[in-house]
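Below: protein 1.
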Amino acid sequence: MKKLFIIAALAAATLSAQAQEKLYLSTYSGTNLARYDGKVCDVNVSRYVFTGWNTIAMPFDMSEQELNDVFGSDCRLECLTGAEDNGNGVTLNFIDCKAGGMKANTPYMLYYTGESGTKKIVKQAEVTDAQAAITYATQSGEVVTMEAVRTHTDGKGFYGVLARDNAEVKFVSVDSENTNGFYATRCYVRLSSGNSKMISARHLGEATSINAIASQDELVDVYSVSGAKVASQLRASEVNSLRPAIYVIKGQKILVK
């Protein structure tokens, strides 16, 4: 019995040690996450955010409450849900997704209303080394990708949001501006045709009903608020049978209760 007790105690100590592994994430040069992949760690992050719009991606999940605790209850979290040609370039459609929290390594736009400065994220979380990018094609076939930055890069040929001009989501070509590139935990946008086009952003409105945007027999593609396709060519009349959640259909936010 004593031997079994010692073995059990050692096993518990091992699990505790694994759960308490510490990760100090560099938001400048980046951190090699391979050794932490799949582990529950005590995460410590110091991330500088500017008043206005910021791009953000973390290698762990954060709930809506955690986002509010760190960035304030007035913060907004938006994800890319589509792209379209607008005649002068490309328009990116963003939708509010804070209610679903922030998913690991997924690129987001974060709107911060406080004073510019360093915000600390201290929590226990499962860390993942997987890379998640969101990709859409416009009507003309232009492929738009929004992706997280893992290590500091000059980002030549990509688009980013300038810290000095972030009251709006204004994406500019890195080649045409004097920038420091992209630091880790930020995100960039790239176009398959290069960086010669103008990019604008649209913030989609509040959730609406499926009946307002599609006829009952219309076949629609359904996406989650993080951009993952949930269903292909689903009859509009069947959308309300999906599990309760917020979905994106035809660029509009749909609430299924």
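Below: protein 2.
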Amino acid sequence: MKIKHLILCGAMGLMMVSCSTTKQSAINQLEDFSYELRDHSRYYNVDDWEKAGKKFVSIRDKISKHEFDYTPEEKVKIGRLEGDCAKYMAKGAKEGVFDKLKNIGSEIKGIIQSIMDAFDPAAQ
């Protein structure tokens, strides 16, 4: 009987750790992506920007799956990292790279438009 309880407790512990890891891995992916943009975005071509936009949306989807699980500190970190990504993406948009993108998804277009509006005083 004690062995069954021990196995059950161990399994529950592993489940809790795996949820935490998944939650944290989404933040880690966003952090890695912000570093990737920081270090390499100035060399991106149209295809690279299209892939980066899709990757950002994919990471955001993973984060949104855990939005109620994050602590206030984690949410601040997520916001800062998203802001960093947006800054690099806006710089790319400002340089006209995004105008050349073909077949870009509407969600990415919305992100880009929001970024552009944030930097355009006439839009506010």
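The chain has a mean pLDDT of 77.
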